[in-house]
Amino acid sequence: MSLPRREFLRSSLGFGALFALRGIVRAASPASPPLTAANGTSRPGLLFDAADLPRIRANVQRPEFAEFWTYMTTVDFAAEEKFLTHELSLRNHIADMGRAQTIMMRSAFVHLLFPDAQHLALARLALKRLLDYPRWDWLRDSQHQPVAILRGAGTAMALAHVSEWLAPELTAEDQAAISRGMATEGGEACARGVRDMNHHDQAGPWGLNPDEEGLPPVDVARWPRILDETNLRITCTAGLAVAAVHLWEKHPEAPAWLALARDSMKLYASRMNRDGSFGEGIGYWDFTFMHYCFVLEIFRRKLGIDDRGLLDFPLMARYALDMTMPTAGHPDDCINLGDAFVAAGSIPLSWTAREFRDGCAQWLTLQPKAIRPNWTTSWTAVWFDSTVPARLPAQEPLDRRQALGIIISRTGWDVQDNVVVLRSGGPINHEHADRNSVIFKAHGERLFNDPVHASYSTRDPKWLLRQTEAHTSVLIDGHGHVYHDGHDGTNSSTAAAQIQDYRLGPGWMTVTSDATDAYKRANLPAKLVQRTLIYLKPDVLAIFDHVILKTALPISARFQVFNEDGEGRAAVNAGTFRIERPQATLLARVLTAGASSLATGRLKLPESGGIYPFTEISSAAATEHMLFTVCSTAPDGEAHGDITVTHEGGFWNFAGTHRGQAVKASFVAADGSSAPLITL
């Protein structure tokens, strides 16, 4: 992996020689290895000690870490040097500073484990360029003072690591420059962020650095209020915490920063749902708690403060398990409500597994694609403990009603298992306009899809993927429920839905959700927008939509088809529609109370960005609409059974057989103040 220094300089076509002539490459001192004091005695590192290095070296060479380690060690040194030397802009924090930070951390970690002159040279150059930035973030407060939330906090964490990892190769001037930045752009700037979030009613509006490059169109004036309860509170807190630890007993404000950071951690914990669920979605749970666990670790290791009891981490690992939804070719697929698009990564899970000997967290850590190719996965390499057994909890429920209002009903956790999801509940950061939307995954395929990779920018056509019309949801006269215009980010709207009824039995689940208020807030004449699901495991799902309006208008129910790979197909025929994916099909029988039609369509997006097909039930203008959709799924190549759908004497019914299973249910539509009473 590494070359002797002489061979490296001879074979690097001038790159290493160029660095050496600049004085960037310095030979490591054998008398002063990483993570030891100048006198040779051990000192606790931020996340690990010198004695841990053999274990970490062994971890990165495990098969599960292969993709991560290939990413870490496969570097185009010339291209990265060119970027750092000639292309990086000190006015671009989002892209350029982020890339410089990644370059530094990747090469510093590789060099720490397996000393390598090329990686050392690149890490030191990236460090130099990061320290050239006069500001570490692109935000400022109402007094035009810098605020560090994401980029600034991340830079503080990165520099604290490099200060330790490259200690033998850094000069006293290097360390002094790091400490100066940690004080002003780390501690002080992060403290401003946390304090303004704590007191957002008194905080003045935030703004952007006026000369910043590459910013999206966003108004950050209300961000002290908006960010208060979001994942970015914890990134800011992590930057504050690491500055306090790095400058402990060296800076007069370090104790105040520590107290502020601990209070922020406790406040955030107090807002978490008791069932471990996380409103911003599983991807943001992962991002949030990698930083949260980092803070817990550095406080315990460096200052002897043990705050691990603030939250039930094994319980949150069960939430991460609930949100998994592996599909064919995508073992890290997830229940992707809102902006989440991938299952939890290994970083907070590996910490939870180690700290609590939690087999569920370990099982999730070792799932395919959980150990991801980015530099932050180095924390997984640090925390992974191979002695923790990986196992699913023996009595883990297959049905879950989360405190968030999300209903999940599944047959298991494997690719071929089936999953039904209903999105009820209230507004949250990173949400979409998706109340009462449904996901149905069966036999390895997404059959009723929730779109992934919606844009964060209103300038991008894929902002549409955030809207109701891009979900498996109901539209009134072509319009969805209330959302926001995105001018100040991907924050929460005012849309809410309520679970009216939820029942479970052997092999079945029923749920009714009322989203009327969300549609009223969009100035639509809604008196009732109610959706009921009847799920007969594993393959039959019935959806009953009941809509009552003040004035006669048409409504429609859309069913989105997953087509990111171009393999999604939809067709309609004589009161039925069919969705086809390579490994599974869905057949839906449709019955409505009034005149209606079936059609296929696609979202109005440029084809260059992908084709997004759907099927749609359109109900003609009326003040009351009832749409009954009874679906069966089957592996590709298998026939669908004979299921009859009727509406007689006020009763909605379906009965028949599918894949050898007898299915039967009936109900009467309620008046909206209650849910239909279902007989199975």
What does this structure look like?
The chain has 680 residues and is α+β, with helices and mostly antiparallel strands. The protein folds into four domains: 1-9 and 16-25 and 46-133, no CATH class; 137-271, no CATH class; 300-396, no CATH class; 399-636, Beta-galactosidase, Chain A, domain 5 (Distorted Sandwich). It is 32% helix and 23% strand. The chain is built from 18 helices and 22 strands. It has helices at residues 5-11, 15-21, 53-60, 66-73, 77-87, 93-113, 117-132, 151-165, 172-198, 223-226, 231-246, 254-270, 282-303, 313-322, 346-356, 359-365, 378-383, 516-520, and strands at residues 139-140, 146-147, 207-208, 399-401, 406-410, 419-423, 437-442, 445-448, 474-476, 498-505, 508-514, 526-536, 540-560, 569-573, 576-581, 584-592, 596-602, 613-635, 642-648, 651-658, 661-668, 677-679. Strands 9, 10, 11, 12, 13, 14, 15, 16, 17 and 18 form a ten-stranded antiparallel beta sheet that branches. Strands 4-5-6-7-8 form a five-stranded antiparallel beta sheet, with no helix packed on it. The protein has a four-stranded antiparallel beta sheet with strand order 19-20-21-22, with no helix packed on it. A hairpin with a 2-residue loop joins strand 20 and strand 21 (661-668).
